[in-house]
Every structure is written in C-alpha cells, then in structure tokens.
Design a protein that fits this description.
The protein has 16 helices and no strands. It is mainly alpha-helical and 339 residues long. The chain has a single domain, classed as ABC transporter involved in vitamin B12 uptake, BtuC (Orthogonal Bundle). Helix 4 crosses helix 13, helix 10 crosses helix 12 and helix 13 crosses helix 14.
C-alpha cells in the first residue's frame, strides 16, 4: 500500500472513483430545474426526495454491506419525532433541529449496530424487526407524549435561515429538501467511494477474507449502522418539518417494507437506485391510489414481479449493465473494422 501511495496509483484510483460523471450532474440538475417548471407537483416531488434519502440510508447497510434490515423505519421515526418534539417545545430553527435529529438517530443506530453485528440471517432480521415494533408500540401507546394515532400536534417550524417561510405551494419545502438531500448525498458518496467504502464491499462479498486481512469488519458494520441511521433520521426530520406533523405511522413495519420495495425497484449499491425507486414507487402509488384506493398494492406487487423478471438487480443496475455491454460490442465492432 505504501508503494501505491508513493507512485500515486492509489490516489489516482480513489480520484477516479470520486469523479462525477455527466449523467450524475444531469440527474441533480433535473431536480433543480423542476423547481421552475410551471405546474410541477412539488409536494409529490418533495416526498420522492425524502423517500430517496430514506432509501439511500438503507442502501448503506444493505447494498454496500449486505446486511438486511426489517426495522429501518425506527431510525426514520426517531428523526421525525425528534424534529417534532423540538418544534413543539420551542426549538423551531429547522437546520439545527435537523442536525439534532441526525445525532439522536445516529446514536441509536450505533447501539443497534453493536447489538446486531454478531447476528446473521433470520436472527438479524428478527432483531431489527423486533426493535422497530417495540418503538412503534411505544409511540402508539404513549398518547400523552406523542399524541398516539392523532399525531403530535402544535409543531412549529421557523423560516429556513430566517428568510424562507414554508408556503402552501411547497416551493420552500422542495428547495429545502433538495438542498439537504444533495448535501447528505455528497457526504455519503464520498464515504462509499473511500477506502472505508471498499472495506464495506469487501466484507459484503467475503467477510472471512477481510477479517484475515485485518479489516475491522465488526467495527465497520457498527459505524455503517450509525451513518445509515443518521441519514434515515435526516429524512424523517425533513418529513416532519415540511408537513409540520408526525404520527406513529412513520415507524410502522409497513414503512420498512415499502422502503425495501423502493430499493428493490431502483437497485442497491448504486446510490442513485433509491431515488429512482422512490420516483417510480411514489408516482405509481399516487396514480394507482387515485384509480383504486383499496387495491392499488396489487399493481405494486405486479410491478415487483416484472422487475424481478426483467431487471433482476433493479432498474438502474440493469440499465447500467446493458449500457456497458453495448459499449463493449461497439468497441469490438470498431476493432474489427480497423483490423
């Protein structure tokens, strides 16, 4: 490794991994342009960004570390209720409340990571699900503290930076969520493209070999859970701040299940898969629920079957694979012509 660092090849490798491609820049520019599109459903797009950020949090532990979780909604709910309690009891400044939500959720995530890092398979799934159900049952029953099914009332959120008040049309909410999502995404992107991110991928593919190489596999998993939980807490806090409402539903198992659906649709371990999956899931949910508010989940299930059949690794990884194959065929034909 020292020789690699001396001749610069390792530095060049990580620089290449961190380089932004044209389609990545275009992806975020499209979201920025949507702010100025007349008639755009900014409220729906704000939900997509929140869910995309939420899916990104799960992607850290599931996609990059290979550890499934059925209770990720717990971290989302912790962030949502933290922002809600702060807004209700006088701490109305949104950015500092967002950081507080990330901190609280991140600490709980570190504790959870320490608990589950020695578990595998069904045992791991049951522990994450159990922790989620415990928190959900508590916020559901603690009506004096959380409001129960009626939700937490009286949440007040001050204007962003003291200048931009949350309006009924959703302009401030959309811009605020977009900026926060982009900042968090850049930080997560830097982490997964670093040596730590490579260590996560190595532990996902061959944990025994990584342990033999001296990598802190268990410690990396604990830290990954902490980072993942903090990102989920930010997503939950954004939902509370933009709607000024939070209920036990944010911690329900249904939300954790929907999150897995979002990541399956978009694709794991590609960072952008969660956002693509969220866009497909939220838009379809909105359209299908308008057509039939009772049986719309049937069509979501059918969509999952089709995706597994035709896009086995999710929409984005499958499209990327097809694109790379097309480029290889094009290069091969070019070589034949030149020969």
């Amino acid at each position: 490794m020292l020789d690699l660092l001396k001749n610069g090849s390792a530095i060049g490798f990580f620089r290449e991994r961190a380089r932004w491609s044209a389609w990545e820049i275009a992806f975020w520019l499209i979201w920025a342009v949507m702010f100025f599109v007349p008639g755009a459903n900014l409220a729906l797009l704000t939900q997509v960004l929140v869910w995309g950020l939420f899916a990104l949090s799960l992607d850290i532990v599931l996609g990059y570390r290979g550890v499934p979780s059925l209770g990720h909604a717990a971290f989302f709910g912790i962030g949502a209720y933290t922002a809600g309690f702060l807004g209700k009891y006088g701490w109305t400044e949104p950015i500092s409340a967002l950081l507080a939500a990330a901190l609280v959720a991140g600490v709980v995530g570190l504790i959870t990571g320490r608990i589950v890092r020695g578990l595998h398979g069904v045992g791991l799934l049951m522990v994450t699900l159990g922790l989620n159900l415990l928190l959900y049952d508590y916020v559901h029953r603690a009506t004096e503290l959380t409001g129960g099914d009626d939700g937490l009332q009286g949440i007040t959120i001050a204007p962003v930076l003291g200048l931009f008040r949350f309006d009924m049309r959703g302009y401030t909410a959309y811009a605020y969520v977009l900026v926060v999502s982009f900042i968090v995404f850049v930080l997560v992107r830097a982490l997964v493209n670093s040596a730590w991110g490579l260590s996560l991928l190595g532990a996902r593919d061959n944990p025994r070999r990584m342990t033999m190489l001296g990598a802190p596999v268990a410690g990396d998993l604990t830290f990954a859970f902490g980072i993942s939980a903090a990102v989920a807490g930010v997503a939950g806090a954004l939902l509370t701040q933009t709607t000024q409402f939070v209920s036990p539903e944010v911690m329900s198992f249904q939300r954790s299940a929907d999150l897995l659906v979002v990541l399956v649709i978009g694709g794991a371990a590609v960072l952008y898969g969660g956002f693509i999956g969220a866009l497909v899931f939220i838009v379809l949910r909105d359209q299908l629920a308008a057509l039939n508010p009772i049986y719309w989940y049937f069509w979501i299930g059918l969509l999952l079957v089709l995706i597994v059949a035709f896009f086995r690794t999710g929409i984005l990884p499958s499209l990327r694979t097809q694109w790379l194959r097309w480029l290889k065929r094009k290069e091969a034909k070019g070589a034949e012509v030149s020969a």
